[in-house]
Amino acid sequence: MKTLVLIAHPHIESSRVNKKWKESALNQTDVTVHDLYETYCDQPIDVKVEQQLLLAHDRIVFQFPLYWYSSPPLLKQWFDEVFTFGWAHGPGGTKLTGKEWVLAISIGSPEHSYQAGGYNLFSVSEITKPFQASASLVGMIYLPPFIEYRSNKISDYDITQSSIGYVKHITNTELNPKIRFRNYLKQLDESTLSVNE
């Protein structure tokens, strides 16, 4: 499985969590890291290059810090320009169908503040509904996100643990329930064969 990590962090050099995640992803085989702010800070988005990157990968990880209950603005612009009508959605727009969509989000607040009655009123699942809807529109399979809460108060040790968890998450083929079920059936079949031998 080939994984593309699209990073949208306008100040990644001053970010402890996203910077470490990026470094960890760069050390993985079959993972391509593409930093949008590094690539397109002062120039227009090259739609054809971005679309080719998407076509060359099976899983797309969108990595960003939560800004005002959404992503930083360049990622929104990227969606607007790259997910074109007739290519990603609409008649003939099936280029992304069946590809996997994973969010990797760093959040400064604690987890308990993202729930009904909490400080932020809504869960992260509710806040990320536009991403889930976008994945559905373009035919992608939305998989469980990787979330790091309290990212602005996290210890060095916890950042290391977070980056280990992040890599395991974004490279785990069994995030996809269809693959997990297929692997389960394969194991079941193998255990049945060994019992019958």
Characterise this structure:
- Keywords: Oxidoreductase.
- This protein is of the alpha/beta class.
- It has a single domain, classed as Flavodoxin domain (Rossmann fold, 3-Layer(aba) Sandwich), CATH 3.40.50.360.
- The chain is built from eight helices and six strands.
- Strands 1, 2, 3, 4, 5 and 6 form a six-stranded parallel beta sheet that branches.
- Helix 1 crosses helix 7.
- The radius of gyration is 18 Å and the shape is globular.
- The model has no long low-confidence stretch (mean pLDDT 93).
Task: Give the gist of this structure.
The protein has 197 residues and is an alpha/beta fold. It is 43% helix and 15% strand. The protein has one domain (3-196): Rossmann fold.
Name the helix and strand elements from N-terminus to C-terminus, one letter apiece.
EHEHHEHEHHEEHH
Morphology? globular
First and last CA, distance: 33 Å
Average pLDDT metric: 93
Q: What is the name of the CATH superfamily?
A: Flavodoxin domain
Reading off the top of the CATH hierarchy, the class is best stated as: Alpha Beta
**Radius of gyration (Å):** 18 Å
- Please name the CATH topology: Rossmann fold
What's the main sheet like?
Answer: 6 strands, parallel
State the helical fraction. Answer: 40-55%
Proportion of strand residues: 5-15%
Number of domains: 1
How many separate helices?
8
Kindly state the number of beta strands.
6
What structural category characterises the helix and strand content? alpha/beta
CATH architecture: 3-Layer(aba) Sandwich
Regions with little confidence, pLDDT below 50 for 5+ residues: none
